[in-house]
Amino acid sequence: MDLSGVKKKSLLGVKENNKKSSTRAPSPT
């Protein structure tokens, strides 16, 4: 797995989560 790819996916996931529910955003592991 590419660290950069994982980081990008994680960042995207976090951003999407924040957009959907800015009240609770589970940290991507």
UniProtKB/TrEMBL annotation:
Span list, region Disordered: 1-29
Protein name per its UniProtKB record: RNA binding protein with serine rich domain 1
Residue ranges, compositional bias (Basic residues): 1-10
